[in-house]
Amino acid sequence: MRVFVTGATGFIGSVIVKELIEAGHRVTGLARSDAAAQTLKAAGASVHRGSLEDLESLRRGAAAAEGAVHTAYFHEFTHASLMTRLRVLFGGSPGGTLSRFMAATVATDGRAIQTIGRALAGTNRSLVVACGTMAMGPCHLATEDDAPDPRAVGALRASEAATLETTSFGVRASVVRLPPVHGDGDRSGFLPRLIKIARKKGVSATLGDGGNHWPAVHRLDAARLFRLRSKKDPQVADIMGSRKKAYRCERSLRLSDDASTCRLSASRRMKARKTLAGLHRSYPSITRRPAR
Ligand SMILES: NC(=O)c1ccc[n+]([C@@H]2O[C@H](COP(=O)([O-])OP(=O)(O)OC[C@H]3O[C@@H](n4cnc5c(N)ncnc54)[C@H](OP(=O)(O)O)[C@@H]3O)[C@@H](O)[C@H]2O)c1
Fold it and tell me: Whose Cα sits closest to atom 35 in ligand 1?
């Protein structure tokens, strides 16, 4: 299988590339610089020049592949194009720079996922997108059945919603919610930061009695999961097919509420309502939109 990988030179993306190649897949990695292109070639991947903000490059990369993995993200100001940086810096009051940068990262990510999804549309090809557990609410054990909590810090990210949206046009999409990822080469992640603070303060502090848990994953395990999600999986197809069906029912019912656009007979409206209720029962977090 030929897989298009964005963020292929990143901390997680680089091991996903290795994992996919070792499993016999052909990888094309997105590279935005000569250095990134060299790294990808050395890893045995083909190079596709482009960037997160060059939507045409993303479209072409995904269209030529049988599946895509999206891990690229602006984690630093320098990851954005010059135009975006100028807009962030001078597009409003100096106090709003951070929120303008966050908004740019979220919008860029959403557009990138949508573009890749459109390029894969209608073919049941896979799209696996990296996201974070920070979209989960605090104070309870979160599972894959939980929808993102709109009040959580990470819920600002558009990744999950944009990825789910792609299922409505025939993409076999999954989101991998990553906790802090660790492993060789981790210099700026969560653990190195904790270690740095402990070194500086001379003490490794814990909250309360230290019994609290923090999820974590080794980057090699994360890479394996991305590879497995890229493969055909009937259960994933079933869940995502249900999401698509729910979208259609919601849309028909919404249109039928408006007398001017109503084209559904009473019996078909009732059928759509019944189908939607059944989907909500079977896949509550997948088919229900989170309450705002
Ligand atoms: N690491 C963690 O602990 C963790 C935890 C939860 C979620 N995640 C998520 O997992 C994903 C991957 O994280 P990571 O730690 O591997 O990130 P990373 O090491 O910072 O890598 C980011 C990747 O994105 C690429 N990139 C940045 N700006 C780009 C642009 N304008 N155009 C094209 N590519 C661009 C970078 O390319 P260059 O090499 O050219 O800079 C790099 O390959 C992200 O979505 C992240 O938020 C990570």
Answer: 72
What is each CA distance from 221 to 16, 19, 159, 172, 284, in whole angstroms? 10, 10, 21, 22, 28
Q: Is 242 in the pocket of ligand 1 (CB under 6 A)?
A: no
List pLDDT tens digits, range 70-79. 999 998 999 9
**pLDDT 10s digits, 143-152:** 877 888 888 8
Residue 135 Cβ inside 6 Å of ligand 1? The answer reads no
Q: Return the HEC string of 69-92.
A: EECCCCCCHHHCCHHHHHHHHHCC
Count of positions (residues) in the chain:
292
- 3-class SS at 182? strand
User: What are the structural domains of the chain?
Assistant: 2-179 (3.40.50.720)
Dihedral Cα 191, 158, 117, 280, nearest 10 deg: 110
What is the side-by-side order of every strand in the sheet holding 46-49? 46-49, 26-31, 2-6, 67-70, 126-132, 172-178
Mutation test residue for ligand 1: of 71, 176, 186, the one with most atoms within 8 Å of CB = 71
Would you say the CB of residue 12 lies under 6 angstroms from ligand 1?
yes
